[in-house]
């Protein structure tokens, strides 16, 4: 069986003899088709080229998984420990016996979820490697699923896949864009895993939101306000983005400050003099 992986976005596609002709994720204005054209790979091929996974502790109860060299967008994945098994957040677009063994060392994966369709990688292969653990996909983003499978559970608004972890739909980048709230994280102060729903700036002291990464289209004020409203009731202190960036503490204040500034620029309330 060959589950094809789009080299640009890293999303796995159904088992077919030949690679699919196109990736609708990459044809969408939020992504891109590389100038050299759509290209495909698969996990055995990547493994033969020396691709490996690594797992490091981000804080007690939370591990960060990276794949080297990068596959697709090259995002980081997270493994959140709960009392009923682990949640795999934003799986990589790559799977191998080495990668599964590494994750299994931390215990069974009991649920898989991600912030939006760009960062779901080889989610079905990962589920099948862990006794068909349920994969949570926002109902609003159902269209973008490339490899349909009975393990997919659709949800809207809020959903708690395992004790102490809650998916919160914020919208913005995609209608179903979400964050994961891990209540026990940051020594009980709460952690948010943000995906592309909130993009942490390289100084680890700002966030931004976008209709389109990497094509840099902004969101309208109403969408930014909706994100603020949906985050407002949540208790959290630390935030982890999809790459190496982390806001260590006081994240709600950073979010409020950053997004109010964003709205000021949208409105033209602030400006540079030319
Ligand atoms: Zn793609
Ligand atoms: Zn994205």
Textual characterization of the structure:
- By secondary structure, the chain is an alpha+beta fold.
- The protein has a single domain, classed as Metallo-beta-lactamase, Chain A (4-Layer Sandwich).
- 19% of the residues lie in helices and 28% in strands.
- The protein contains six helices and 18 strands.
- The chain has a seven-stranded mixed sheet, with helices on one face.
- Strand 11 and strand 12 form a beta hairpin.
- The longest helix has 17 residues.
- The protein is globular, with a radius of gyration of 18 Å.
- The site of one zinc ion has 7 residues, from helix 1.
How far the N terminus sits from the C terminus, by CA atoms, comes to 60 Å
The quaternary structure here is single chain
Q: Which range best describes the helical content: under 10%, 10-25%, 25-40%, 40-55%, 55-70% or over 70%?
A: 10-25%
Strand content: 25-35%
Give the cofactors and ligands.
zinc ion
Q: What is the number of E strands?
A: 18
Looking at CATH, the homologous superfamily is Ribonuclease Z/Hydroxyacylglutathione hydrolase-like
Total of domains? 1
Secondary-structure element order, N to C: EEHEHEEEEHEHEEEEEEEEHEEH
Main beta sheet, described?
7 strands, mixed
Rg value: 18 Å
What would the principal axes of the Cα set say about the shape? Answer: globular
